[in-house]
Amino acid sequence: MIKTEKMVSAPPVFSEHGFPSVARDLLREPGLLHPEEKEPLIPRPNPEAVIHLADNLRKIIFPGYLEAGPPDPDTRQKKLDLEIQGLYSIFIKQIRLSFPHECRLRGRLCNVCRDRSHEQASAFIRSLPVTQTLIYKDIQAAYEGDPAAKSHTEIILSYPGLLTITLYRLAQTLYTLGIPLLPRMITEYAHSLTGIDIHPGAQIGEYFFIDHGTGVVIGETTTIGNRVRLYQGVTLGALSLPPKAGDLFRNKKRHPTIEDDVIIYANATILGGETIIGARSVIGGNVWLTESVPPDTKVMLNRPDLIYLKN
To answer: Which residues contact residue 76 at a Cβ distance below 8 angstroms, ignoring those fewer than 6 apart?
Structure first.
């Protein structure tokens, strides 16, 4: 029998002087970004702080659901008030950090934007009861639209669609207040958790329900009416642009409009800013649309020819 020597991997070799050339190359400007984007000293929001904000906002929107609270109502209110005050302070700081980068890109001074951080943080906090009402309507839509849902609590604790819609609605308020960076960071955090991508600029009406949800994409200029239901893999997107045409379309309507009471089934793709799906229409699974659909219309693919083979 031939004996084989056991292969022993060589120990890693460490430089006595570190890796100065690697550090130098990483700091070298590639020439691809705006000068303001490359400036390392410009303050920016802290991603960990934004995640902390998002997680605690959900606890505030659903008091007593995501963590145990005191049984006494007065104590619960005082505890919630303290939590809101703490979030208010964090919001002021992160809003202040959001503006210098944006202002430099647009050639503006930042002092006015920084001075507004208290006002914007206060406006956001005061909007929370209205946002909570919208979210509870979304919970009701999920309960009425999904027979598998046994209770509202189950939806709050376990439905990825509701988690994403909750953070979207909170981020959308920040977006409406004109706060840069933070809204997108919050919705992309939800995207990383659930696989559902909703841009904070999208306009979404009441009683919105995403069933299952993985792979859903809703673009920035999408408009969605009331009582709309989406299934997994739905894309409400923009048509592909020519190279370097992004700036020409940046503030224009690029994504579809979905009117009231529309149902869109799994993996349907609807593209384009001029595309309107009329009220009460049903879009079947795997349908590809780049043109408008009148109200009360069903759009479906022809049934595929199935082949059955015996073993």
So the answer is: 63, 64, 69, 70
